[in-house]
Amino acid sequence: MERQYDVVIIGGGVTGTALLYMLSAFTDLKRIALVEKYPTIAAVNSKATNNSQTIHCGDIETNYSLEKALKVRRPAQMLVHYAEQLPPAVRDQVIYRYPKMVLGIGQAECDFLRQRYETFSPHFTGMRLLEKAQIAEVEPNVVQLNGQLRPEAAVAISILNEYTAINYGALAQSFVDQAQAIADSASGKTIDLRLAQQVQRVEPAGSSYRVITPDDSLIARFVVVSAGGHSLLFAHRMGIGLEYSCLPVAGNFYFTPELLNGKVYTVQNDKLPFAAIHGDPDVTTPGKTRFGPTALPLPLLERYSPKTLIDYLEVLKFDQTVAAVLWDLFKVRDIRNYIFKNMAFEMPLLNRRLFLKDARKIVPSLQLKDLEFAAGFGGIRPQLIDRNQRQLILGQAEIDPGNGLRFNITPSPGATTCLGNAEQDVLRIQQHLGCEFEQSGFEPALMPRN
Ligand SMILES: Cc1cc2nc3c(=O)[nH]c(=O)nc-3n(C[C@H](O)[C@H](O)[C@H](O)COP(=O)(O)OP(=O)(O)OC[C@H]3O[C@@H](n4cnc5c(N)ncnc54)[C@H](O)[C@@H]3O)c2cc1C
């Protein structure tokens, strides 16, 4: 007999598990399943080693406008507020307090950061503007060169005492643990965690949906697909979201010995659609500093899974419009050079030398011998191409046909916004199923305190 569920979530990354937690904790839905193809939670982009471990709240991301920064700040605060309430031993495996800064080098970047500080600091009260000598107090290696202060003009916008780093894998596990604890507490809820079960397809079954795995099929009144780039594949196979194609952009990292005390971001080139590299401590690898991520278009939906090339070719749906969008990108000199540079970052012998040049903007005394490619680290950002708008979408996107299906596609900062996205998913589920969404529990547990 097919088992019946109110909601089935496909994908056990931070997006799917945040929704599992939110449905268990704050709705009256009784039967929820999460199906994940790998034997562990958070095995792909949400794995701690595969992303930049940053809580993006808009203050040091110079590619965010004030409007975007204020938008992303709320879900970032929800995340921190949630994690702060975990038992201390769990909390300390999830969130980390490091200083963070965005560094301006040269007069133009310094002027830009001073101006940005004026605009942003009334909204982000923890911000401090650091002059070169003050940067040295927080991050000596950023400004020291041959025993002296580096010669170029340097200024930084910093936040010195907030939670800034996060292990998204541990966060996802905490969401699952919380959901299961609620189910075990005689709440009458069933949380069915189905690991190592790859969903093959979703098909309509009356007013519900059938979610089919090799060994089983589940009936769901609502299906949320939070399967990274594969969400688009599921949508396309159901004839939905065909206006979207995908440009997967891989991000790799390099390790050095410990050089930084916290996160040091650099000013974004506003012609480039991808964030500039940064350096920071790796929460999973004590004693090392990690630099990256690079940004290399790669025809895969999962970084270390060559067989996802076939899936990628299916979601690409290459046509004249996709070609035109890619050509428009390639025509911009800065983007073209950046793509070539990132290709060269992959070439043995050349890669470390080229990357060293970029990383020296952050640590000018960095030596080639100290750089080591972080093999096995990094992931893929599934950036969508909107055929109707003829443009690359830089943030996350959801496809919601309004009929009991929802598809989340979540490049950066999709991990930071996981609870915000889950909230949106729950509101749509509430609309469709008419369930309760308990604000009285939700607000104290998740709403940011001001
Ligand atoms: C290099 C890099 C750096 C990043 N840095 C940051 C950062 O610092 N801060 C930030 O907020 N974001 C960052 N991001 C983005 C962030 O990693 C993602 O937004 C986030 O992890 C997405 O989570 P997710 O659960 O949607 O997807 P994923 O973590 O990819 O999870 C999707 C899950 O779906 C499962 N799945 C797929 N197909 C099926 C199927 N057929 N059946 C069952 N399960 C399936 C997969 O196995 C996987 O577990 C970064 C991304 C990259 C690549």
Automatic annotation (TrEMBL):
Gene3D superfamilies: D-Amino Acid Oxidase, subunit A, domain 2, FAD/NAD(P)-binding domain
E.C. code: 1.1.5.4
Pathway: Carbohydrate metabolism; tricarboxylic acid cycle; oxaloacetate from (S)-malate (quinone route): step 1/1
Phylogenetic placement of the source organism: Bacteria, Bacillati, Cyanobacteriota, Cyanophyceae, Oculatellales
Entry cofactors: FAD
InterPro entries: FAD/NAD-bd_sf, MQO
Native source species: Pegethrix bostrychoides GSE-TBD4-15B
Enzyme class: oxidoreductase
Protein name: malate dehydrogenase (quinone)
Single Gene Ontology BP annotation: tricarboxylic acid cycle
Parts of the chain that traverse the membrane: 7-26
Entry GO terms, CC: cytoplasm
Entry's Gene Ontology molecular function annotations: (S)-2-hydroxyglutarate dehydrogenase activity; L-malate dehydrogenase (quinone) activity
This protein's UniProt keywords: FAD, Flavoprotein, Membrane, Oxidoreductase, Transmembrane, Transmembrane helix, Tricarboxylic acid cycle
Reaction(s) catalysed (UniProt annotation): (S)-malate + a quinone = a quinol + oxaloacetate
